[in-house]
Fold these 2 entries.
Entry 1:
Amino acid sequence: MTKLDKDLVVAEFTAAYKAAFGKAPQLEQKPGWFSVDGGKNIRLAELAELGASYTSTKKAAPVAAKKATAPKAASKPAKAVKAKSTGNGQSAAAMWAQRNGSAQRPPRGCR
């Protein structure tokens, strides 16, 4: 695990935020935590990842626009998957009694 330089991470995050949103972020620093624009508190490593995601989205945006203009082939709709039922419509107490017999006490809520 590498040690992060707080000043360097904050400077990189600020630059990426300005490039992505066009304004400076409002960073609140608390001991060990950072809050961006009054939002959720995050750690320094998460702040570095967030800044990296802002720079990667800006580079990926023109590529995504090119992909969106390409014609798509008609895809088949996905088949619905049926859930398997194990109780065959029985209640929990009836399943318990069937599997374990009357030797054991039924679970809570079934007494």
Entry 2:
Amino acid sequence: MSLLRKTVHAVSWTLGGRQLQQLATLFITAVLAKLLTPEDFGLMGMVTVLSGMAMILSDTGFSAAVIQRNNLTQVHYSTLFWVNLGIGLTVSCLFFFAAPLIAAFYQRPELTLISQILSVSFTLSALSTIPQALMRRAMRFKRLTIIDTVVHLSTGTAVVVMALNGYGIWALVAQPLIQQTFKAVMMWWHCPWRPSLVLSVPALKDVFNFSANILGLHYLQYFMNNLDYLLVGRFLGAEALGYYTLAYKLMFVPIRNICQEIVKVLFPALSRLQDDPKALLDGIGKALRSTCYIVFPMLMGMFMVADIFIETIFGEQWAPTIEVLQVLCLVGLVQAVITVLSVVFRATGQPQRELRIHVARLVVMLVVLLSTIQFGLVPFTWSLLVVTLMFMVVYLRAVAVLLQAPLSPLFAALWPALGISSVMALCLWWLRDLLAKAAVGGAHELALLIVTGAGLYGAGLGLLWLYYRRYDQRLI
């Protein structure tokens, strides 16, 4: 099978699995929102920001080296596994003893026990890091998608059962532990590789520079993606963070996950083209266009129905989430482009270039977000959009310079999906006005808008396909 067919096959399986997982996430989130309080979500969101930073350290960037490097041996893989496991154990211990400091930072004593229980997850995660990277390197994305989907559904079922039985916030605390346990078991069951009892310092040094840059990059990315969580939890409190967390779970995280799943496939595929800038530009253009076709209509559709969706599915107690969700939909449009572009730096073995961009972005974000947090949750979210939009332009320019290409092919990849999605959104706005005059609301209005939006977007794609076919061009 050619590289192109392998990539298409992998993306198809990955996105199909992700769509199923998103539907499950929506159902699980709706059930949990009925059973738990905004404060429960907020408390979990507080500790999740810091536990996520520790989780990145337990990976150390070794998985990216396993995927990108072409000359690694069994000695390398075994060394990286044992070092990674040792770091995971160390991070678990450090996080356990840091739990009182986390509680003191947020001024919530109950976070001490929650943080101590969550510390186990870092060791569990380290167990599956190298086997998963080896399966990605081999482009076994069909098997990985099946594993992720089974783990996702099993974890969601267990968490809902716990919430139904009155465990409250502890259902949320148990979620990452159950997920990492299931994932480790499934990865070792399906990955044929086994580590040898060897620890080589030269092998570790061989990948250290690349892995260190990737680790720094992951840390900056994570901190930027969660700086808003950290500031909202610290300055606006658990309830406000609960509303923000729900908005994130409903749209921004699923959309970001779709982009990241595409990147997981693109990374090994484009790494094989790292010595051919023209082929790389063509590949990233197709990936960007495909991602926009999937992500843009979902985000713009959610923007148009956010108020009806929240009030119908979750109830009026979650009404403060509505405007935050709408702004995050716009942030998601921009972040989707950035996420896809970021793979170019890693595929060409130059993550240090992206690292410099992230340092600048982090400084700007910190200044802007700290300046706007005092005005409340909604102005804070709008400022996040402004910063993200600014750095999308920086990313586009940096990728064009790296590939020694003009910006026009990258911009051209955005317009088709953006145009069709904008027309769809305008039609939905007009339809909402008609339904309001006809006194149609609630679940019926939501269903009509979703079906109409999907139909309009499908028709738009069909017309675009006919246009491209007329000029002997491809839709993707």
